[in-house]
Amino acid sequence: MRAVWVTNDLPPRTGGIQQFVGNLLDRVHPTSTVVVGPAGEDAAEVAAHDARQPYRTVRAPGAVLPTPAVRRLVTEIAREHRPDVLVLGASWPLGELAPRLGRELHVPVVALSHGLEAGLATIRLGRLVRRATRGLAALTTISDWCEERLAPHVRADRIVRVPPGVDVDRFHPGVDGRALRRSWGVPDDATLVGCVSRLVPRKGQDVLLEVWPEVRRRHPDAYLALVGEGPIGDDLARGAAALGPDTGVVLPGRVAWDDLPAAHAAADVFAMPCRTRLLGTDVEGLGIVYLEAQAVGRPAVAGRSGGAPEAVRDEVTGSVVDGRDRGAVVGALDRWLTDPAGRRAAGAAGRSWVEQAWTWEVIADRFAGLLDEVVTDARRSGAGS
Ligand code: GDD
């Protein structure tokens, strides 16, 4: 199977879609795939990353959007590589390219969807989804919540569930996060609440900071680490400083990809009380971080936004709360901070759930099967000949 992937979301840039695309690329026909990706911020980091991958990456001069220049670049790469299938890393807006590319290259086009497309459908922008899916042989969805909203608008020949997963060999309960938490200034005997995420309003780091004085009043030895970087980083740093000295809040910044499992293992409880914003367009499609935290055996506190509640088993592997309800966030943190045995039980339950349902092996197999099906169908109908 030869594939060309077209994506604006690709490691080394941080984010869920980047993780998702990178992990599928590693496992689905990597040596017979060419990827058209975005230029990226740090050219040296991008070049070093690309050189390590089993697939060839061609970086566009800027972002990978549905422009004539990107279409020409993809056509050029495809004429040289002769793929059996074209894969789009996100259906919107890249799906706009699908009808013409599919026709010109005589290949079926498959696109992944994430939270944004379902968000568009919820605010009556379903027509954008219809336009972006009309040239697709298949569209993948990441959660029940997303699929329910997308399905009425999707014009692709089929919809298949392909959620993001977690690498259970990298993220496991034996990962030692102690050195990393020491480097953040967190004492060994403190109980640490961790949030590993891009620092953006939807994720709810601001609410964690707001409720922190109350959590600290109940648990004077507790620490809070807001790991990651992003647009609200400065606001969060100011908010943390305003709480006063010795409040146990640390903002360690972005961690390297290799340190991600240790960043999760450093914490005793994971919390990201996400909330839906911007009339429903800014919504959590699923939340890979919840899977990562459960894979290292930590209880996860999730917000009730989009598909996030599907990533955590409420009261079994963590808690699902309304991310706007400060009292509920305090209650969930209090519950897990108070009960070390409960944390261990939830951590074990989370690990086994992730092993059963969320491993990349299972998910990548399903995606590879989907590519086989669409290519076989296209050949049968003569479109791929
Ligand atoms: N290296 C590194 N460093 N990775 C980080 C850091 C950091 O400082 N902070 C966050 N990440 C990683 C997380 O560990 C996770 O793997 C990823 O970035 C974030 O993934 P999500 O929690 O899924 O959030 P998202 O908003 O970027 O992703 C969107 O698409 C996903 C895939 O479809 C959302 O719609 C998610 O809900 C969806 O799961």
Summarize this entry quickly.
With 385 residues, the chain is α/β, with parallel strands linked by helices. It has helices at residues 16-27, 43-51, 68-81, 98-105, 115-122, 126-133, 144-150, 178-183, 205-218, 233-242, 260-265, 288-295, 326-338, 340-357, 360-380; strands at residues 3-6, 33-37, 56-59, 85-88, 109-112, 138-141, 158-161, 191-196, 222-227, 249-253, 269-272, 300-303, 318-321.
Description:
This protein has 385 residues and is of the alpha/beta class. The chain has two domains: 3-165 and 359-384, 3-Layer(aba) Sandwich (Rossmann fold), CATH 3.40.50.2000; 178-357, Rossmann fold (3-Layer(aba) Sandwich). The chain contains 15 helices and 13 strands. The strands form two sheets. The chain has a seven-stranded parallel beta sheet. A six-stranded parallel beta sheet has the order 10-9-8-11-12-13, with helices on both faces. Helix 9 (205-218) links the parallel strand 8 (191-196) and strand 9. Helix 5 (115-122) packs across helix 6 (126-133), helix 9 (205-218) packs across helix 13 and helix 12 packs across helix 14. The longest helix has 21 residues, at 360-380. The two termini are 14 Å apart. Guanosine-5'-diphosphate-alpha-D-mannose (GDD) is lined by residues 14-17, 19-20, 114-115, 142, 164, 196-198, 227-228, 254-257, 260, 284-289, 292.
